[in-house]
Amino acid sequence: VSTPSPVQTVTLTNSGTAPLSIATAVLGGANAGDFALASGTTCINGATLAAGANCVLNLTFTPTAASARTATAIITDDAAGSPQSVSLTGTGVTPPTATLSATSSAFGEQRVGTTSAAQNVTLTNNGGAPLNLTGITITGAQAADFAFAAGNTCPSGAGSVAPGASCTISVSFTPAAPGT
């Protein structure tokens, strides 16, 4: 929802033997406001196409609701069968929403140089689109004392979590020196 799609192109070809005059090129229908003519559109009001020539409608889809959305691209011209129309459809989805089962983990006392039992945090995507991850890192003053442990099911590099799915971030603690 509210994120534009990549441009999709519709081509209109003048298959006749005479020039074709375009009176209007508009979007109509129930959700016409969710679709837009993008840069590079050449099927514009007042355009003329020579015999055998074509023009393009470059279209984007920016849904305003999380549901199926429809519209029609309508080109009124001087050809038989005018207007020419193309049905447009798209489905708006809610953006990915990351939720963590915990925002901190306390490992308690651990002997220097020994490794604790792993602690797990669940990452859940509550949105309607894939949650794209570029990486999960451990940061902070003693970051080197912590490591991802066996049982970690989240992508360690780039990856994604499907809508409604979860993965586990599993971390262990191996202190290098006494302290907090």
Question: Can you give me a brief rundown of this structure?
Answer:
With 180 residues, the chain is mostly beta strands.
Descriptive terms for the model:
about 180 residues; mainly beta; Immunoglobulin-like; 2 domains; four-stranded antiparallel beta sheet; rod-shaped
Description:
- The chain has 180 residues and is mainly β.
- It folds into two domains: 8-91, Immunoglobulin-like (Sandwich), CATH 2.60.40; 98-173.
- Helix content is 0%, strand content 41%.
- It is built from no helices and 13 strands.
- The strands form four sheets. Strands 4-2-6-7 form a four-stranded antiparallel β-sheet, with no helix packed on it. Strands 8-9-13-11 form a four-stranded antiparallel β-sheet, with no helix packed on it. It has a three-stranded antiparallel β-sheet with strand order 1-5-3, with no helix packed on it.
- The model has no long low-confidence stretch (mean pLDDT 96).
Report the top-level CATH class of the largest domain.
Answer: Mainly Beta
β-strand amount: 35-45%
Reported for the largest beta sheet, the result is: 4 strands, antiparallel
Q: Number of DSSP strands?
A: 13
Cα separation of the termini: 45 Å
CATH topology of the largest domain: Immunoglobulin-like
- Tertiary shape: rod-shaped
Architecture of the largest domain, CATH level 2? Answer: Sandwich
Q: What is the radius of gyration? A: 27 Å
Helical content (DSSP H or I, runs of 4+): under 10%
Secondary-structure-derived class: mainly beta
- Low-confidence stretches are none
